[in-house]
Amino acid sequence: MRAIQFKTFGNPEVLEYVDLPTPQADADSAVVQVKAASVNPSDVKNVSGHFEHTTLPRTPGRDFSGVVVDGPQAWLGTEVWGTGGDIGFTRDGTHADLIKIPLAALSRKPTTLSHAEASAIGVNFVVAWLGTVEYANLQAGETVAVIGAGGGVGGAVVQIAKARGARVIAVNRHPLSADTPAGRLIDDYVPLDEHTAGRLRALTGGAGADVVYDTVGGVVFETALSLVKRRGRVLEISGTGKRRVEFDLIDFYHNETQLLGVDSAKLGVAESAPLMAALVEGFESGKLQGPAIAQAFPLERAREAYEAVATGTHGRVVITM
After folding, report:
1. pLDDT-based confidence at 313, cuts 50/70/90?
2. Would you place residue 147 in the very low, low, confident or very high pLDDT band (cuts 50, 70, 90)?
3. Does 259 lie in the same domain as 190?
4. What is the mean pLDDT of residues 165-181?
5. Domain co-membership, 110 together with 196
6. Which of 7, 68, 110, 253 gives 283 a disulfide partner, CB atoms 3.0 to 4.6 angstroms apart?
7. Do 180 and 113 reside in the same domain of the chain?
8. Between vectors from CA 270 to CA 159 and to CA 161, what angle results, nearest 5°?
């Protein structure tokens, strides 16, 4: 089968277009013919050597959409999708014609999404769902402030929150485009600057947000804490620009804030499958929408796909097989 592989860490130039042995299903696994696989910023970081646990040589890629071609009879020909924090890191990933995954990782793809769209859901929507639903237990009628709402994860949080009946306040450097699903769904917008806390509290009658989903972290961590109401929940998934942070501990415990870290990379492809399955109804009902695909590259041009993500392309980048 055709695949992309890297034997040393570096820029996208280290990616090689190679022929590898065709994987075979066994009693515990199935083989999926990959139709499309997105390229995430974490894939680019993986190739660069950012993650210490990655073993070489390795085929990268976390997200995928495809068709089961080898495995249990009941699954043969089924369109499936998935993601995982193990594939592409400690086991071969999705930037290949075929991928072998555990039977527990099989999850049916929404019929409303193309393979390209479905392949661009996994990383962003799984971490958004994990934080919003599993950890914060966001309820209808609550208010969520999404820091970095214009990004991939932030946009997924906006969609999931609105689908659950919450009020969404986007906190972003720039206004969200009305051409994006997140831009059409937000209830209010607050610029991310020195006046963010005052403006958000004015929108919430002085109380603050029930949930703050901070997709930026680091340099805006203290801002995130300033936006949450008493006994509210703050979710952190990143540490942009500043790994170590300071905050007023007395204000923190007086407010009885709940601080939650969210790391979907800890979930392997099998552990991620239930979350992918939970998303299906939202896409098939129209409550959730697939992302805009900015660029699509054939597998043999995977280096170009990685370079596009590395330079910050707006919209998702996918590799098609």
Report:
1. confident
2. very high
3. yes
4. 94
5. no
6. 110
7. no
8. 15
Asked if residue 136 is part of any domain, the answer here is yes
Residue 243 and residue 162 in one domain: yes
pLDDT value at 244 more than 90: yes
Residue 281, in any domain of the structure: no
CA distance 261 to 99: 30
- DSSP secondary structure code for residue 26 in this structure: B
Contacts of 305 (CB under 8 A, 6+ apart): 39, 295, 297, 317, 318, 319
Which residue segment(s) compose the domain that 235 sits in?
Answer: 125-264
258 HSE (CA, 13 A, CB side): 15
Q: Work out the average pLDDT over 105-134.
A: 98
List, for residues 21-75, the tens digit of each pLDDT value: 999 999 999 999 999 999 999 999 999 999 999 999 999 999 999 999 999 999 9
Whichever domain contains 163, its CATH number is 3.40.50.720
Contacts of 179 (CB under 8 A, 6+ apart): none
Say if strands 16-19 and 2-5 run parallel, antiparallel, or are unpaired. antiparallel
**Is residue 179 very low, low, confident or very high in pLDDT (cuts 50, 70, 90)?**
confident
| Number of structural domains in the chain | 2
- Please provide the size of the chain in residues: 321
Enumerate residues 6+ apart whose C-beta is below 8 A from 225: 212, 234, 247, 251, 252, 255, 257, 259
The one-letter amino acid code at 14 reads V
Residues 96, 49, single domain; the answer is yes
Q: Name the pLDDT band for 314 (thresholds 50, 70, 90).
A: confident
Q: Is the dihedral of CA 265, 271, 272, 274 positive or negative?
A: negative
In this structure, the answer to whether residues 15 and 66 fall within a common structural domain is yes
Q: Is 8 exposed, middle or buried (0-12, 13-18, 19+ CB in 10 A)?
A: exposed
Per-residue confidence at 163, pLDDT binned at 50, 70, 90?
very high
